[in-house]
Structures are given as structure tokens and as C-alpha cells.
Design goal:
Blueprint (H helix, E strand, L loop, with lengths): L9 H4 L2 H5 L6 H17 L7 E5 L5 H6 L8 E6 L2 H11 L5 E5 L12 E7 L8 H11 E12 L4 H16 L12 H8 L28 H8 L3 E9 L11 E8 L2 H5 L2
Parallel strand pairs: 1-2, 1-4, 2-3, 4-5
Antiparallel strand pairs: 5-7, 6-7
């Protein structure tokens, strides 16, 4: 991905997340988010020619770039919670063959049960209030031999100190949404740096007019999520971005590749 979008990529670059992330005027923010997309694209390789769902697709940037790869899926759907987000994706990216966009609510219909070889859910779960329901939905959507690919931010340990510094500087420069991120007290910051596998601080809940309640990044614990995941999925792999050879506790994002529970055992019989 270049510093400036090529003409063929302008529809994707016009997306609201793409503008503030992969094409951010901050080189650090742009690098971190481009690395995240590149990790997601790499993890999508095994699903070439198959059916893929991006749950919480945002502005559709990931799916757009995935369809530019030689390992593009046979068909893909991007799902979002708001009609206006879906309409925006359709308007900008609706001409991409075999790519559709729907509302998340529509995925509850029976024809979506087990319909997807891969369900990607990237940088979504940290904002969700009812995580267990979302994990159940992913399980509902996956085929028996499918894989879920989930990415979440690392908001504990040493990476949090780096992120909070970057957010503060970005806020001073008026870049992105970072001035609106809930600040930490010194006690909360200390608890987050040394957090274990349980939720370590109370997470703030936000709700705009007419919107569903949601969390911001503050207090998200990827280790606590890992424990929730284990009741529904077998963890096939855990990795980090933007530097893939680092352990997740030293990365900016943590990536889980998950198999529906008992599938790994069944495959060995």
C-alpha cells in the first residue's frame, strides 16, 4: 500500500476509516494500520476461492484490498450494524464482483448458518458490550471446517504506554479520533500495564443518541478475551502485528485464528 492511493484505489481510500488510518498524516499511525491490513490479507490466503465474511467491516477497505489479491475469495460479504455504513460501502465498492454488503442483523437468518469458510472480525470485539453473544454469532456463521480470524488491540502491558503516548501526540496534532479516547488515571494505567487474565479495571460505556452502547479501547484485555474464546473455539494460532515475530504481549494487535470447538479433535480421528 503506497503513501498515496493509486487511482484504482480511490474508492477504498475515500472510506472514513481508511482516511484516518492507512492514509493518516501521521506516519506512525499509517504504518501501524497498514501493517494490520497486511497481516489480515496474509491470514486470508488459505481461503482463496472460498466464501468469506468480514463481520464489522467498517468502510470495506480490507475486503476491497483482498479482492485485488491473487488469493481473493470466490465471494465475500461485509457486514455492519448501521444502514448508512452499509449504504456507503455499496456506493463506493458495489462494483467489485462477488462482493456484497449487508447489515449485521440480517446474518441471524437461517440461510447464513454455517455458510462461511472464514469469518474475519477485526478491531471490533474491544468495542462490544456483550462479547459472548458476538462469539456465539461467529460460531453460528462458520462452517464445520471453517476458521474465525479475530484481531483485537493490545491495550495492556508495555504496548499501552507506547499507544497512550502516540494518542496524546496525535490528539495534540488534531489527528484521528484520539482526543476522544477516555484517559487513564495513574492507578488504572499501572493496573493495565501489569494486567493478567482477568478484567483489571472498569471499562467505560458510551452511547450516542440513537446508538447502541459501546466501549472505547480503554481497559480492553486481550488475555481475558482469550479465556472467553476457549469455551467455543480451539485456538489454532496466536500472532501479533505490526511485527509478526514478536509475541502478542509486545505487539500493537493480537490475532487469533480459531477453529469451532471439537473440529480439531474430529480431524485427527
Amino acid at each position: 500500500m503506497a503513501d498515496e492511493p493509486e487511482s484504482a484505489d480511490k474508492a477504498a481510500a475515500a472510506g472514513h476509516y481508511a482516511r484516518k488510518q492507512i492514509y493518516s498524516p501521521s506516519r506512525l499511525i499509517a504504518w501501524a494500520h497498514r501493517s494490520r491490513f497486511e497481516t489480515g490479507l496474509r491470514l486470508a490466503k488459505p481461503f482463496a476461492g472460498r466464501k468469506l465474511l468480514d463481520l464489522g467491516c467498517g468502510d470495506g477497505t480490507f475486503l476491497y484490498f483482498l479482492f485485488q489479491k491473487e488469493w481473493a475469495p470466490a465471494a465475500a460479504i461485509g457486514a455492519e450494524i448501521k444502514d448508512d455504513l452499509v449504504e456507503d460501502c455499496v456506493e463506493r465498492l458495489g462494483s467489485v464482483p462477488n462482493l456484497d454488503f449487508v447489515t449485521v442483523d440480517s446474518l441471524d437468518q437461517e440461510d447464513h448458518r454455517g455458510a462461511y469458510d472464514a469469518v474475519f472480525c477485526m478491531e471490533v470485539i474491544e468495542h462490544v458490550i456483550d462479547v459472548d453473544t458476538l462469539l456465539d454469532q461467529i460460531r453460528f456463521l462458520l462452517s464445520a471446517n471453517g476458521r474465525a480470524v479475530i484481531s483485537v488491540p493490545v491495550e495492556i502491558g508495555l504496548p499501552l504506554l507506547v499507544k497512550q503516548t502516540a494518542r496524546t501526540v496525535a490528539g495534540w496534532a488534531g489527528i484521528g479520533d484520539y482526543p476522544g479516547t477516555t484517559p487513564y488515571t495513574l492507578r488504572e494505567l499501572g493496573a493495565s500495564v501489569f494486567a493478567g487474565n482477568r478484567q483489571h479495571i472498569e471499562r467505560p460505556i458510551h452511547q450516542g443518541e440513537g446508538e447502541q452502547p459501546f466501549h472505547d479501547h480503554k481497559g480492553f484485555n486481550w488475555k481475558e478475551l482469550r479465556e472467553r474464546i476457549k469455551s467455543r473455539f480451539d485456538v489454532e494460532s496466536v500472532s501479533a502485528s505490526p511485527i509478526s515475530w514478536l509475541p502478542p504481549q509486545l505487539g500493537s494487535q493480537c490475532w487469533f485464528v480459531l477453529v469451532p470447538k471439537n473440529t480439531l479433535e474430529a480431524g485427527t480421528n
